[in-house]
Amino acid sequence: MRKIEREQNTVGIMINFYCGKKHKRKSSLCEECGALLKYARERLENCPYGEEKKSCKKCITPCYAPEKKKRIRRVMGYSGPRMIYHKPLEWITHLFK
User: Fold this and answer.
1) What is the pTM of this model?
2) Over pLDDT 90: what percentage of the chain?
């Protein structure tokens, strides 16, 4: 799996977990989280660094709009620490790659 695909998968897991817990969604994302997931996947797919990219947090060329950046940080801040219990393999992969 390409690095970009792995990151898209990880952000999908985080957004799904966040929406399920915060917005009480069981089977599908709410409209807001669905739009955020689509946006994040597009940003990753069009990253100018491609497979050589660093984590978005360390990137010198941020590509997220300010409001979207706030929202994705909120999602990652909530989901990231909880992934160790719910998706440990994905958490380890995300942390070390």
Assistant:
1) 0.86
2) 48
